[in-house]
Amino acid sequence: MPQQRIYHEYVNEKLVPYWYVLTFKPFEISWEKPVHYFDVIKPFKYIERNQFDESIITFSLYITDFLINADYPNKLGINLKSIKKRLTVEEIDPEIVHQFIVPIPDVDEVLNLIPNKRKINFNVEIL
């Protein structure tokens, strides 16, 4: 599961989200699959924007790269097929990308996709 962080700044003494960042371990993403689903866990770790680690190879995501599937409650999907296509155009090997970043203005839209409550499905057999 990726490490999820919100990088922020303080503007007029208010915390303002700047980036939603997903950091993956090497080979955590299977690029052969069309979609990568991961658990979304709130609250996120909030970090000041100036502490962003620029040494990790990072690629930007668009709001359209995120998928919601009713079969996977509490999970958010990333459209790997679309991302891989953009990486290929940029001549970037997907295996070296270990971090995705969602810039302003998409941060608020992505955060609205994330459920506020965890849903638990129970399989009940009625006799």
List keywords for this structure.
127 residues; alpha/beta; 3-stranded antiparallel β-sheet; globular; disordered C terminus
Structural features, described:
This protein has helices spanning 80-89, 106-113, and strands spanning 3-11, 14-23, 35-39, 45-48, 58-60, 66-67, 75-79, 99-102. The model is unreliable at 118-127 (pLDDT under 50). The protein is built from 2 helices and 8 strands. The longest helix has 10 residues, at 80-89. The strands form 2 sheets. It has a 5-stranded mixed beta sheet. A 3-stranded antiparallel beta sheet has the order 3-7-6. The protein is 14% helix and 33% strand. It has 127 residues and is an alpha/beta fold.
Any chance you could write out the topology, listing elements then pairs?
Elements: E1 3-11, E2 14-23, E3 35-39, E4 45-48, E5 58-60, E6 66-67, E7 75-79, H1 80-89, E8 99-102, H2 106-113
Parallel strand pairs: 1-4, 5-8
Antiparallel strand pairs: 1-2, 2-8, 3-7, 6-7
Q: What does the main sheet amount to?
A: 5 strands, mixed
Distance between the termini: 38 Å
User: Averaging pLDDT over every residue, what do you get?
Assistant: 84
What gross morphology would you assign?
Answer: globular
Number of helices: 2
Counting DSSP E segments of at least 2 residues, the number of strands comes to: 8
Radius of gyration: 16 Å
Give the low-confidence spans.
118-127
Strand order of the largest sheet: 4-1-2-8-5
Helical content class: 10-25%
Classification by helices and strands: alpha/beta
Percent in strands? 25-35%
List the helices and strands in order: EEEEEEEHEH
